[in-house]
Amino acid sequence: MFFVCGLTVDNMWITYKNVTMSHILAIDQGTSSSRTIIFNTQLDKIDTLQQEYPLSYPRPGWVEIDPELLVASVTNTLDPLLEKYKESISAIGITNQRESTVVWERSSNKPIYPIIVWQDRRTESLCNEIKEQGKAELIFQKTGLQVDPYFSATKIAWILDNVTNARKKAEKGDLLFGTVDTYLLWLLTGEHATDVTNASRTMLYNIKKQEWDSDLLDLFNVPQGMLPVVRESDCEFGELKDKKIKVTGMIGDQQAALFGQRCFEENSMKATFGTGCFLMANTGAQPTFSRKGLLTTIGYGISGSTAYALEGSIFSCGTIIQWLRDGLGLFEKAKETEALLNKDWNSNGVIFIPALSGLGVPHWNPSIKASFYGITADNNKKDLITAAFKSIAYQLKEVLILLEQDGLSVQTLSIDGGMTVNKVFCQMLSDLLQEEIIVSRNPETTALGAASVAMLGANITSDLNDLSKVSIAGTKFNPKAPFDEEDYQQWSRNLNLLVNEY
User: Fold this and answer.
1) Rounded to whole angstroms, how far apart are CA atoms 48 and 269?
2) What is the pLDDT averaged over residues 435-440?
3) Among the residues of 26-135, which ranges form H helices?
4) pLDDT digits 0-9 by tens, 59-93
5) Three-state SS for 292?
6) Cα dist from 234 to 167, 372, 450, 464, whole Å
7) What is the SS3 assignment for 21?
8) Given this model, what pLDDT does residue 435 score?
9) Regarding the domain with residue range 23-253, which homologous superfamily does it belong to in the CATH classification?
10) Per-domain residue ranges for the chain?
11) For the segment 119-129, what is each residue's pLDDT rounded down to a tens digit?
């Protein structure tokens, strides 16, 4: 079937530019697994492969990934689909876990240290030193970020200071830095580049000037020669070695979900429930700086224009469910939790503090630990599970309250991510947030966002209006039960008491 510029055939919703029906390949590199997905040009999922890999916890608060295992998980899902669809792939998009940090040798392509994951808290003391120096406001005004181990800058500094001869090699130009998108691009194409969304999460990138910031490079003692070239999200980033297929889109995973959820209008927002939970709201062409602990970040850079966003980062979400399953053995499969959540979301006095990796917005406390409170001999595993799930919803409620205080009103909330297949949890969210919840038809919209920016970068589709014509909305959930304000306040009081102890 052929499509001619200016015409549509068979009610197709995208205006194509003299291309045959083809496929878009998306690499979705996540915190604990990698997936490769094949989409058609209507953005229907055609094929997919996924492979998990383990995280490593060498010390309390440290979280690492073996680079060889991560790369293998990508190639093991990518290569079979490249071979299967090699004649029809028109573009490749990459989306990735943000902030996780790789430093590798230019000559050998080998990382000099394991990948330090975004959840890692080892640089807490360095962050405290920077705050004591009075540099937090400077960093916030330039990057929109809070000083926290979450971001890449202190991870780079730690590697340079703790790996033998690393700093000397970096100053000679022998070492390169990248978030995972950049490292994968380097291996696949030989190009050292990233996009504006990933750059904006390093704590080294000036989001107003849209350039690496010399003051911040000096502050963290990071040589600029290590850093990748920064491009818009829908650019040509390179061509696969030995294959004439181009990477035409790169975007960080949460921004990819924002893009995949079609949050192109100001004040539109989404929440993604993956390893963590991330609520992101499009704030338009100018950055909006929150005084409530929210992050200001670049939502996407497309065709010469930038959309900024406010983000609420919740560090523990899917990891809580995994821990309940694997760490406590409360169930064997995550889907069992639909039957294990108590009626009316009553946890019978049990409160869970969801700080498996510290707390993000609005507390920004890397020291606090997770805990259950209020347990008596009358409680059972259903109470513990209900309390844990409820804590995820209550954290999101905290973020929504902050957004409203910053002037953003919530009309409806689009959600995606692995946890949204749990319909009981979706109804819990609607009841506890007292908001209409719209679940994406595709729970993994990060890959959809990567494919979408790749289509723009390859000129397969023209603009955001074309992308907006396809609906991704699935099931809607509306509140069915009144909100228990006292229960929420009790949870909040316990959380704040614990925060104040740290």
Assistant:
1) 27
2) 86
3) 67-84, 124-132
4) 988 999 999 999 999 999 999 999 999 889 999 99
5) coil
6) 33, 45, 9, 12
7) coil
8) 87
9) ATPase, nucleotide binding domain (3.30.420.40)
10) 23-253
11) 999 999 999 99
